């Protein structure tokens, strides 16, 4: 636990939150949870898929941009690590891990790509919605495969132009990096459909946030 | 048979004592030979530690290549021999530094080896050993032995570390603790148990690897930074690095004249900044999934997900726990230590940057005396491989914030807030301009936090660290001492020993017995200590009680590692064909019964349940064993408002039945404690791991 709050302070924060009836939304990230849930539900949805025990749907009108690692100390309107694209504060949906999620005007395929921003290129990642927890997830550049035969780990990498990072033999799982500009959901589908030796495909994500406690 | 074993053990103990005596004779002879004063042989900081059996692990450079191996001491009347343990011999990468140059004649000049309070220098001559002509042996050249008493400089903050030795100190806060409310490790301190040889991973926000009180225990290149892909996870934060403070509780160096000391001050540290990156892969890689974490003995996980819903774990997480239980530590199993949570009163369901505090007494049903967050609503904290740790304060009662739950295993010091009553003293980010203690704090907790000129002039330490974040590393450090004492302990052994030796803290526990009126009928919503049919004390606030290091180490002396019988995994029950209605606002609730035919000794116990209800914060779930032991799995009026309606059910763990026999009638009660919403029970299964 980061010892920042005395009991009294904690109580006052809670009390003030309770007393503020309806928040005026200047940006999506400032919505309360019910308003936020409604807002997210109103967004266009793409492909639905299972991942690591949860069901997700692609949110093609959102994008995630990678920031530096200092998010925990940032104020609500700060984002110094990002060279973000043409977004304004009003477009910020959420900050999650090393990412900031924005609304985007055009729908893009589910790939990680480099986009030219105000002060250079920035990595942009696809955004999904966890249909059970209603939390936003960000697809990262890694995946792992549970394999029937671990001998297949390298040949699968060769066939799909993905890089074998390491294997965990007891878990019967091979871990891979995949390149930019690959449609991740299409790749996932191909891996499942074309390989009976792949028991499970899992895309790496930022979804469940763990906090110091 | 037992008698024979005992004799062997007694002989072995005598033998150890005899060896120590012999070594002391050597020391005295050497002192006499060298005359007084003796010379300081070399830099004590780089000393090779000699084990209790005088074994030593060395790095040797021979003909340009570097090797690492273990030398085992052989007692022989013709001299003092060490034999290479050939199974440990491995070539290592050149350039690591610190290796001993070995001459063409095979002689090894030990510059400094440490045993107890002495450092010694001597030369080992490669020599054949007639009784074992095929082995590789070195004999001590007694003429070269130089012994130097170690200058013990102490730890200036140790007198304030109530968590290690509570003498009633205030620890820079306004009030004193209660003597004895600590880890009970006086004997361990006297015996200089240190966690030597045990590798600890701190899965957290970072680890300041160059910190003056940590660097000596940090494994070079053993950590990983998932933000910049280097082996240095030093945080770039400026207002405190949680991981650096957690690491200090485990392994701050002892007797170096700096700061305090960790529970296991010679254990080895690896830091993984998983909380910075937050991708699932970083957690998997750091939990033994990647080779970089597969040599770890104890994983300290002072973090958790916060939500007002039940939190399941992912398929891959289940997989990694299942596999690592039988693969890590040479098959003895990785040990995962997890904080219970800081949500008894309130907790953050937002983010660090944008906190949103959920306060049960305001946002739920007005109760301040029932746990708001419930640890049992977090599947990961019920895993058999995980040791979930609650926190107690310097007065010896539950820390005000410590999340309760039937799946807690143990409790350890966590303290309060460091203003009116003590928090925990530990390492902080170095420098007056960084960390929890800084010279620019406007409202510091106490004078220590802004650079006390005597005790904290450089703000390298904090007296304000707290939370179950602090309790978990205290338990981790204690486990390191157990593993040092007996490295063969399995993960099950460790949990068993902790449970068996735990101290019944806060014995009357008046605050934890809570009766709530539900529609005019009294219902006991929190029950304090219970003693189960196997004689174990259990409390949803404390698990089996407070970690008792000395009792655990004593128990180890007569404990056979790996002696717990093979586990069986049994499940009972099924989904109801027709959901059973839960009566609204009714203390009697709905009862469901399961008969268990097998008579296993229970080690891990789980209820699998599915409940459909618009607001499960109203719901209470409890189960009573065939022996009459009652366990409240989910207290009424908690913050768990949703997520219990998964088709396959959610898992609620309880440790209250540890050691009891499973055969007989198990009685589940599900009740609704508030008028208005109604729901139903759809599934009730039991899963028992036992033998």
Helical stretch tally of chain B: 10
- Find the biggest chain interface: A-B, 54 and 80 residues
Low-confidence stretches of chain A: 2-27, 69-84
How confident overall, as mean pLDDT of chain A? 80
Structural class of chain A: alpha+beta
Structure, described:
The complex is a heterodimer of chains A (213) and B (691). With 213 residues, chain A is α+β, with helices and mostly antiparallel strands. Chain A folds into 2 domains: 40-134, no CATH class; 140-206, Alpha-Beta Plaits. Helix content of chain A is 19%, strand content 37%. Chain A has 4 helices and 11 strands. Chain A has helices at residues 7-19, 33-41, 153-160, 184-194; strands at 48-51, 54-66, 92-96, 99-103, 113-117, 120-130, 136-147, 163-168, 173-177, 198-206, 210-212. In chain A, strand 1 (48-51) and strand 2 (54-66) form a beta hairpin. Chain A is globular, with a radius of gyration of 19 Å. Chain B has 691 residues and is of the alpha+beta class. Chain B has 3 domains: 2-149, no CATH class; 158-341 and 370-506 and 541-556, Peptidase S8/S53 domain (Rossmann fold, 3-Layer(aba) Sandwich), CATH 3.40.50; 568-690, Jelly Rolls (Sandwich), CATH 2.60.120.260. In chain B, 17% of the residues lie in helices and 30% in strands. Chain B has an 8-stranded mixed sheet, with helices on one face. In chain B, a hairpin with a 2-residue loop joins strand 3 and strand 4. Chain B is globular and about 85 Å long. The two termini of chain B are 23 Å apart. Mean pLDDT of chain B is 91; it is low at 1-16 and 31-45. Chains A and B meet through helix 1, strand 7, strand 10 and strand 11 of A and helix 4, helix 5, strand 12, helix 6 and strand 14 of B.
